[in-house]
Amino acid sequence: MTYGYNGKILRVNLSQGTTSTDALDELFCRKYLGGAGFVSYFLLKELQPGIDPLGPENKLIFALGPVTGVPLPGSGRNCIGAKSPLTGGYAKSEVGGFWGAELKHAGYDAIIVDGKAEKPVYLWIQDGEASIRDASHLWGKNTKETQETIRAELGDNLIRVASIGPGGENLVRFACIMNDLREAAGRGGMGAVMGSKNLKAIAVRGHKEPEVAEPERLKELRQWVLTQGELRPPPYNDLDTWAATTIKDGTATGNIPIRNFQDGEFPEISKISAKAGRDTIRIKMETCYACSFRCKKTVVKVDEPYSVDPAYGAPEYETLAMIGCNCGVSDLKAIAKGNELCNAYSLDTISTGGVIAFAMECFENGLLTTKDTDGIELRFDNAEAMLKIIELIARREGIGNLLAEGTARAAQKIGKGAMEFAMHVKGVEIPAHDPRLKAALGLGYAVDPHGADHVANFHDDFYAQPGAQLDKIKPLGVLEPLPAGELGAHKVGTFRDVYLFRIALDHLLLCILLPYDAKRITDILAAVTGWRTSTYLT
Amino acid sequence: MTYGYNGKILRVNLSQGTTSTDALDELFCRKYLGGAGFVSYFLLKELQPGIDPLGPENKLIFALGPVTGVPLPGSGRNCIGAKSPLTGGYAKSEVGGFWGAELKHAGYDAIIVDGKAEKPVYLWIQDGEASIRDASHLWGKNTKETQETIRAELGDNLIRVASIGPGGENLVRFACIMNDLREAAGRGGMGAVMGSKNLKAIAVRGHKEPEVAEPERLKELRQWVLTQGELRPPPYNDLDTWAATTIKDGTATGNIPIRNFQDGEFPEISKISAKAGRDTIRIKMETCYACSFRCKKTVVKVDEPYSVDPAYGAPEYETLAMIGCNCGVSDLKAIAKGNELCNAYSLDTISTGGVIAFAMECFENGLLTTKDTDGIELRFDNAEAMLKIIELIARREGIGNLLAEGTARAAQKIGKGAMEFAMHVKGVEIPAHDPRLKAALGLGYAVDPHGADHVANFHDDFYAQPGAQLDKIKPLGVLEPLPAGELGAHKVGTFRDVYLFRIALDHLLLCILLPYDAKRITDILAAVTGWRTSTYLT
């Protein structure tokens, strides 16, 4: 097989309880690259039109890229795709951590899960061997209990686990899949698809690093990126993804959503600023596979009034905003607790925060009452209510059963004009970037097949002045800053280019936060595979 | 200034007899790169609509690229552009040799020549200084006499000269400009524009190699290309550009034109095959600036019945075909003599061969008679007639005055259905590649603003099977061979990509014959300038 790949796809038919292997040839790999490319290829080729996303006919695909698992920062990612129970269309979601790299080391490039197991199972993959194992004892457990139980019964603490908690089991339409407890393949309801198949987890252990075509060249690229750590703004390794936002210095400038995207002002914003996070709930920074950029907060300082388990990490920017100020909540400890709950239950924090904020606005406007909420005063800034609703959603209890359907479906069921308050695109809750500030990003929400996706998108403020972000797209011919508020032909053309660049990262798979520019990704691909490529796109 | 460039354009106003310098900034260089990019930028910005291509308002632009003059094979080229006296539209032509590299070393990135000198002049550029010098004594001389006289009077035998002979002086519409006697900026009549300005030559001497951003990386790339010499088909360094054709083994397969594109069969083809050329008229191979690929034949064996001066090199494939079998001529010695005459007089061998073949077909069909030709039996296979007509065209004497207008204009003047025999696109004689064999190449003839251009074009047979040529465009996503005879949507899309790739080479400027693929050209540009770029094109 070609460098960078194992040349193997693991097929798992849960209805029949069988596994098998497909071979991948070099031409296929070069054409579709991996990650999002593999996912969309197999979904397009193998899914019948009209199937129920939560039925056994849907397929759940875990795909790696050529770069996954090679010793280079940003290479720990994998992509997960399926027909989405949230949108009814194509969905894919990328996730970091260590699981993807481990799967590469275990001998596969992708897993295609088909059918539905009769009773709960998990998949165990070790150095090219796969088996389907009983998971009855794991059903109902949160992701940490699941991971710990699997590691204990297989007797290896270095096993990497991708799993769902009760959110996925209960088919919450925006349930996610958790890698290593802290990293979420968040959007589009991949966890619900996993739950619908009675697949609790995929445990992986591998010992073989992929061979690469030009190890010395790869080492050079690694050395280069290692020197970038302290230099580039924003300083993720100090302030994490919170730093990338307008709340860095404790001011709301219009990007972060306030109370279900109603308000621009949030006087309490300094309580949840990047610096406040660093100086209060955080004690250290952690990282993903092979990565020198320590952009992951870990929380351990929280104990009163909530105890927060640091194994689940700390809220990233999206979580902070969506279950925080978008719900009117400015209590960092409550937000850290909400993050823990979502990761334990496998709920996408963006959609969770979005649907709770929607419900709060409905409640404030009398479309929902305490009769609907079993007495919960579901008002903005009620942190306790926010946390309680997360529990109810995960278990589909009371109002949680309605909200587990996602904002768009809930609004339809509530009726009475609730759709006015439903902040979604194509059924996907809008993440914490406001298109009224980022015009081209709004275009991205509109045209992306996944709906409101902030990752494969154009963040206008990144490119409105010279700097590291503009440098990343200079190889695409974008040599001068583009005004943030504008949306003319040149801007839209550039939006397309940047969108495709980011999609390319989802094929390779490389982390979007790292300073790899549109030329360097072809250098990396050449070093790994030996292929000579370009970011040329027609 | 940025690496790879001097940051200076020399402006020459011949009407006023003045020179001046414009500064180039980095953003401009990065946007327009050089070569064809600079030429088209300045022509578009500075020429008034409707001007006479042979009037003083036309501008003649000599442009280098970032790669010109750096120590790398293929970097000896320059581009020359102007409004074309042949097409009335935009024209540019690239040329190899040593002159371009010398101009880079002399401190400039381009020369823009405006106006018209009262009497013949030449330009002398030495290490950042430029002067306009009298050339009255050079007028009427051929290119070798011109070069030798200039070198002698300036006292430096290493001066590089771009010049015109009588063809350019006499405004032959397809006159070329000769670098170093052997290399022609052939197409579009740039030599006539030079002649119309009374500019006989540009003599250059420089001593400063351009600084590059990453000398070690450039060295690596040079080392890489040096190892490719013996490997890649076709073996230009053994058989030169003749090898790239279907006559390599002495068979005509439909690409090479026979008797003004009338015939597919030419039994005499083995007399002018690549091997015949190698084994009879050639004695050695020479090369361009910094190039390890010795693809230039030198002829010295010819003395009877013609004496051929080896200083003018030997016919390349286009010359061989156009003044050879396209005129029905299979006498290699006569073809070598014709090549010498064209290079001495600064006539484009393609257009010259094309217009003579056209006249021969007119003669064979009675549209021209010995009355028109002053007694010359202008029939196919009459090598003497072919040589004689070259002389007449250069001097615009007799029938030569008509043919100096180019095929399209001559056909119009002859009338009587002569246009049926006029093998041109947009006024430019069709080169020696037949679109009936190469379908996408024909599309290129049709859509290229220069008319029938075989260089910035798609040669279907290159990409019809795996190999070095296909490898060069793999980075553009062309992973599988494309059938030669086909012209479907995918082929046309690929045609566009390859066309743009070749145009990119004309910006950098890099030789199209070298094995640089669409990724490596960005590696080269990065090593030279430090810029991170891609072949991404929207």
Textual characterization of the structure:
Two copies of one chain form a homodimer. Chain A is globular and about 60 Å long. In chain A, helix 16 (439-447) crosses helix 18 (489-508). Chain A has helices at residues 26-32, 36-46, 99-105, 143-154, 166-169, 190-196, 215-226, 236-239, 274-279, 317-324, 332-345, 349-364, 383-395, 399-403, 407-414, 439-447, 468-473, 489-508, 520-529; strands at residues 8-13, 18-23, 60-63, 78-83, 90-95, 110-114, 121-126, 129-134, 160-163, 177-179, 183-185, 199-205, 282-286, 296-299, 424-425, 428-429. The mean pLDDT of chain A is 93. Chain A has a six-stranded mixed sheet with strand order 2-1-6-3-4-5. Chain A has 19 helices and 16 strands. By secondary structure, chain A is of the alpha+beta class. At the A-B interface, helix 1, helix 18 and helix 19 of A face helix 1, helix 18 and helix 19 of B.
Largest interface, and how many residues on either side?
A-B, 28 and 28 residues
Helix content of chain A: 25-40%
Strand content of chain A: 5-15%
Total count of helical runs of at least 4 residues of chain A: 19
In terms of per-residue confidence, which ranges of chain A show pLDDT below 50 for 5 or more consecutive residues?
A: none
Distance between the termini of chain A: 28 Å
DSSP, total strands of chain A: 16
- What is the gyration radius of chain A calculated from CA atoms? 22 Å
The profile of the biggest β sheet of chain A is: 6 strands, mixed
Shape of chain A: globular
Order the strands across the largest sheet of chain A as they lie in space.
2-1-6-3-4-5
Structural class of chain A: alpha+beta
* Arithmetic mean of pLDDT of chain A: 93
Please identify the oligomeric state: homodimer
